[in-house]
Amino acid sequence: MTRALFIIDVQNDFTEGGALAVTGGAAVTAGISALLAAHPQAYRHIFASRDWHTADSDNGGHIALTGEPDFVSTWPVHCVAGTPGAEYHPDLVLPDRAVHIYKGQGEPGYSIFEGKTGVGDTLGALLAQRGVTDVDVVGLATDHCVRASTLDALEHGQHVRVFTDLIAGVDESASQAALAELAHMGAVLAVSTTTTVLD
Fold it and tell me: Any transmembrane segments, and where (predicted)?
């Protein structure tokens, strides 16, 4: 068994004070860093995604450049490549081996599987190359990118755990519905502090 950690979109624009702030985002960030510090050898492979939207573009209809966003399929300008809002939250401490996945370049891009590394590698290919069979998922936001990334991981045949203490959502009811859906599809809902993480 080879386990990987997916860290989804822990970015300034998705945490308190950002363009699309998720309540509890900063606490999730601190919790992820604490997990990595407590179990430095638990994850041979760590993949961290970021929305990395193209500037001055609606990114496939994802960003409302004119008019009001509906906060369902259109959103305010956020996580524009190279801007402070697109950077990781400053409290996220990643090891050097972490692989950075950029998604939403000219398109919506909710799932980490829709992104690529800086040299163009897809996540699916990297997981296959590295023999990853099990994935733990943390990050933002439960009802959007965490949901999409988890569903794609399950579709790719991974055994998936979602650490419910290390995620936060935009809408409480939608987040609870997302977690119920993920559990129904085969994900294990767990708490990081009471789960055995292999060192």
Answer: none
